[in-house]
Structure prediction request, 578 residues.
Amino acid sequence: MKNSKAKGKGLSLGTKNLFLGLSFILPNFIGFFIFILIPVTFSLVLSFMKWDGFHSMEFIGIKNFIYIFKDRVFIGAIFKTVYYSAFTVLFTLVASLGLAVLLNNKLRGINFFRSSIFFPYVASIVAIAVVWNALFQKDFGPINSFLKMIGIANPPGWTASIHSVIPALIIVSIWRNMGYFMIVYLAALQDIPYSLYEAATIDGATKRQQFFRVTLPLLAPSTFFVLMMLTINSFKIFDLVYMMTEGGPGNASTMLSQYIYNQSFIAWNYGKASAAAMILFIVVGTITVLQFKVEKKWLSYM
Amino acid sequence: MIIRESKFSKFLTYTVLSLITLLTLLPLIWMLSASLKLDSEVFSLPIRWIPKNPQWKNYTVIWGKIPFGLFVWNTLKLTLVITVIQIATSSFAAYGFSKINFKGRDFLFFCYVTTIAIPWQVYMLPQYSLMNKFHLVDTHIGYVLLQSFTAFGVFLMRQFYLSIPNDLLEAAKIDGLNDYRIYFRIVLPLSKPSLATLTIFSFVTIWNDFMGPMIYFNTTNLKTIQLGIRMFIGQYSTEYGLIMAASVVALVPVFIIFLAFQRFFVQGIATSGLKG
Prediction:
């Protein structure tokens, strides 16, 4: 009785919980708010401004957007980003699923294989870029030496050629990321109860049928996750491109992020950079929402 | 799924796995091999995987040509400070987001999750001008503030806390513990594996970060190990042996951490892949 009286005098439960909750969240949220949320919001504002970072800002409406859509480099960047992402997503997905199925057994030493394939993911991109650039070297690099050895007289110029620079980047991305998504798939595979396969075997299903009728449908949620992460990451690709080619040769590998970077830190067109950033955000956001919608629809039928 | 296999298919699996693994590791093996070569040997054919005269001096020269030791120290310092702040604040916040029901909670969490999908390039620039206003560009503090409050940590820890049964906390409340005590006495000790996961991810991310330091550090004394490797590319473009040696040195700590805490990596990836 005394207790409820005390409560009545003090704050209501809702207010109490609000303060309690905030006390847990604030140490992180204050930093998050100032250093991440404010800049995110501010970039929206900047996309309607003309600003070089020094002089005063000027509101110019949608002029930045008009400018970038007339810029051939920007349009090219969109196409290249889509081209790069489509192949990277598809091949990485297939490679990581294949590896996960292959590595999902209890053979001796299986951990060694798993770790080795995962390791490129934790290696620094700077180091990776240096090594792959050397491997891709047009005239005397190991990859082209090998290709010449097996009888290909005119191997591609890789990062030195406008035609093969993006395929080269795709190869490195697959190599780097397949181990990460392999682990996502491995975790999902290990959650599939063995009894399902026993039942399928009793019903006379072959290994192939088991894979397509049991394994693949049950992996659908993971596949959606992998698809989404891969798409977002591919559209955001920057570090690898910057370090391997800096968007070159010419603008042959200038994708969206590189374009934003060039507009901000080389041309000092803050407004145009932010407008391009908004487009990138809209594209990534749309894809994310779309995949969520498709996932909900698809999974609810299962 | 356990597949019982015949001897032949076992042999086949091993062969395929070995080939794939070798192919995956080949670029890194090449790097290791090139780090012990003279520049004239790096591209010589056929590839000599084990150098004839290993140039161990590549590994001593790099420390003198640029302040590589200082860079390693800077990287270590930044990595540790950021990891500690991130662990402390994000696990604390994750408790609020998962175990206390208050008004506006879901909206705040939505803000966090949205920023995971927003590419850094989108707000890199406003962030830079904000830091510039605070006079925090070209300082270690600025970089620490920038990297310590990312949404990923909160997201990962919350995923884990959701799996802690609320009954356990209710029982503790009946015993008279308040939420702060529950967090420190019960939840924190329970979440050691997730804390380890977050530690490792944070460590690897900051250790390997290139873009952040590149944009924020101009003064040589502030630079990090990844920028150091790039300095070799700029200044000594033909000295592949040195570049490779520096890259190997940068990889070693990550490699050791990876080997020691492998299972936490796996656990973390599996957790963040679950639907919350």
Q: What stands out?
A: Chain A has 14 helices and two strands. The two ends of chain A are 53 Å apart (CA to CA).
